[in-house]
């Protein structure tokens, strides 16, 4: 994938009314050397946290532009220089190898690895899962360090744990505004707890607990709410499932009352639609929220998560 210029996800507008991000120009001054606390985030979920917590005191930029698949990100020489000028870098080690390498090579004082702020689990790297077993997680090249699943932001509880750690890091790095960072963190955590309650209540009583997806990003979500994620194994987003896997999923769909194959917004829907056609199932979007675009079902993390909840309720037959 070609290196792309860095943009700020405009839709990182604060769900708590803290203000939208300002688009970043190619001038490196847009990242560092401002009169604010300059934070470079690796991709949307990290940028969203930084803006929510930093509020008016933070100048947040993202290395991954809207619509770009974050796993494939490459870092330009200019972006490396911009990292050097920032006050802090917020990233999730194990998800974007290019970012891990770039942050590790910079002299930036405050490096916040979200993976250290919560417990990452090994949801498995092969086969498929049934209730009580580990959920299958599709392998990405170098995505999972030591087999750990990095998609922690899709659990409101784990995202809240990360938010608390980020808040403390901001307080330490910019003590003049520590009180505001603490207040903003508390407000964000409260809202995430509310989202967790919405999911828990909304998915408590369903006809089935199994859902199919072409990207196994939802292991933490499934684990939290008693669901079973079935990903189409052994394929990349643009390839079709094997005949054996289709037959296996067809049988499971009948056995477990599965109605829907989910696809996502940042990759091709070809795999999901192939499986759905062959298994006589519906398709719908379940967004891993790796970025916000014009086609996203919402303008920010909270809105898209609520849309995900509605999609799951429909597919699982919530009562």
What would the keywords be for this entry?
alpha/beta, four-stranded parallel sheet, 9 helices, disordered N terminus
What does this structure look like?
- By secondary structure, this protein is α/β, with parallel strands linked by helices.
- The strands form two sheets. A four-stranded parallel β-sheet has the order 2-1-3-4, with helices on both faces.
- Helix content is 37%, strand content 11%.
- The longest helix is centred in the middle third of the chain and has 25 residues.
- The N terminus is likely disordered.
Summarize the structure.
With 319 residues, the protein is an alpha/beta fold.
SSE inventory with pairings:
Layout: E1 37-41, H1 44-54, E2 58-62, H2 77-85, E3 88-91, H3 97-105, E4 110-113, H4 156-173, H5 178-202, E5 210-213, H6 219-224, E6 228-231, H7 243-256, E7 260-263, H8 270-279, E8 282-285, H9 301-316
Parallel strand pairs: 1-2, 1-3, 3-4, 5-6, 5-7, 7-8
């Amino acid at each position: 994938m070609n290196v792309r210029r860095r943009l700020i996800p405009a839709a990182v507008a604060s769900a708590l009314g803290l203000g939208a991000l300002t688009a970043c120009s190619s001038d490196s001054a847009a990242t560092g050397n401002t009169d604010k606390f300059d934070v470079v985030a690796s991709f949307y979920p990290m940028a969203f946290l930084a803006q929510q917590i930093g509020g008016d005191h933070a100048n947040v930029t993202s290395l991954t532009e809207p619509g770009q698949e974050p796993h494939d990100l490459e870092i330009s020489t200019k972006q490396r220089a911009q990292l050097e000028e920032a006050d802090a870098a917020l990233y999730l080690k194990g998800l974007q190898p290019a970012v891990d390498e770039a942050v590790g090579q910079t002299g930036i004082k405050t490096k916040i690895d979200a993976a250290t702020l919560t417990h990452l689990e090994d949801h498995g790297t092969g086969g498929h899962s049934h209730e009580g077993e580990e959920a299958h997680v599709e392998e990405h090249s170098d995505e999972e360090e030591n087999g750990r699943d990095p998609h922690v932001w899709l659990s409101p509880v784990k995202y809240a744990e990360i938010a608390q750690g980020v808040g403390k890091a901001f307080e330490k790095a910019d003590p003049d505004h520590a009180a505001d960072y603490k207040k903003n963190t508390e407000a964000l955590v409260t809202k995430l707890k509310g989202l967790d309650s919405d999911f828990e209540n909304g998915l408590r009583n369903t006809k089935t607990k199994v859902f199919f997806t072409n990207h196994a990003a939802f292991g933490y979500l499934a684990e939290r709410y008693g669901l079973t994620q079935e990903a189409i194994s052994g394929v990349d987003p643009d390839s079709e499932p094997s005949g054996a896997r289709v037959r296996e999923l067809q049988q499971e769909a009948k056995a477990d009352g599965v109605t829907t194959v989910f696809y996502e917004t940042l990759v091709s829907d070809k795999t999901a639609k192939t499986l759905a056609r062959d298994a006589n199932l519906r398709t719908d979007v379940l967004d891993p929220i790796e970025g916000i675009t014009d086609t996203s079902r919402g303008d920010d993390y909270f809105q898209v998560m609520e849309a995900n909840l509605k999609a799951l309720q429909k597919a699982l037959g919530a009562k």
